[in-house]
Amino acid sequence: MDTILLLTILVVVFALAFDFINGFHDTANAIATSVSTRALKPRTAIMMAAVMNFVGALAFTGVAKTISKDIVDPFVLENGSLVILAALISAIAWNLITWYFGIPSSSSHALIGSIAGAAISAAGFGILNYSGFLKILQALLISPFIALAGGFLVMSIFKVTLKNKNLFKANKRIRYMQIGTAALQSFTHGTNDAQKAMGIITMALIAAELQTSDDIQLWVRIAAATAMGIGTSIGGYKIIKTVGGKIMKIRPVNGIAADLSSAMIIFGATLIHLPVSTTHVISSAIMGVGSAQRVKGVNWGVARTIVTTWIITLPISATIAAIVYQILNLFF
């Protein structure tokens, strides 16, 4: 079999594996708050998230096009298939490591750092599309702070609105509303996260000269959406525990405030074709909600671990990808 064709097939397989792992790694993002408040049973929440992730993944392609061309130009990248394969191996490895330890790490940071690291290892720093790459980095870095502020603002509004209400009765009614916000959260997760694998596969097809534009083919969209949906259906219970309970004690009103604020930010990023870390947006929204409720109520030790992982994921994944590329280059 032709080496480029073999590499392209491997890229498609590993990209779908990445999407599958992303599904169970990031399931907690969409449903942790609704599970922790017992608005939904874990299995019910996971199955709903799987369906809504699938629907969201099929609805948009803007983020996929950004991934496919804004980090490096696949039309000029030599050994493009090998670079992409190295990036996927690195991102999958980091996702599995952080999942094993129950750390809500960002699949987006891992993938984008890995693409950059593998490309630099192959062709030097000049290969990066700096305008596009910096735009993506800005979205990844700024969005958690916006989420923190958004969660604080929405929770503050809820506090004023519910000030004279019976908190027990209000929480009981809001618990039912959480089913809707969890579904919305899952949909927005699909609109942003599943597109990253679509963009990677499209990069590989362009590098192998199997297509000449950055359009996302229908089979790519369906395959990535299906992989994300199946992965989500398995669920990542370790991360659900961290996001849903270890950052702060979440009540229904806190959960719905976090879901609404983070869903708006993720969907807003999707509309302007920018990838964001759903993990860090939702975790930051929960921290913002907790700060509005009671600053001491937030477990800042867990928050510090999440932030530390947020900072180190890009350089670590880039380094792993650079090493993996050099190893693969010995064989191909």
TrEMBL record:
Pfam families in alphabetical order: PHO4
Protein origin, superkingdom: Bacteria
Keywords: Membrane, Transmembrane, Transmembrane helix, Transport
Compartments (UniProt record): Membrane
Major subcellular site: membrane
Chain ranges passing through the membrane: 46-64, 76-97, 109-128, 140-158, 218-240, 252-274, 307-328
Membrane topology: Multi-pass membrane protein
Entry protein name: PiT family inorganic phosphate transporter
Organism: Sporosarcina psychrophila (Bacillus psychrophilus)
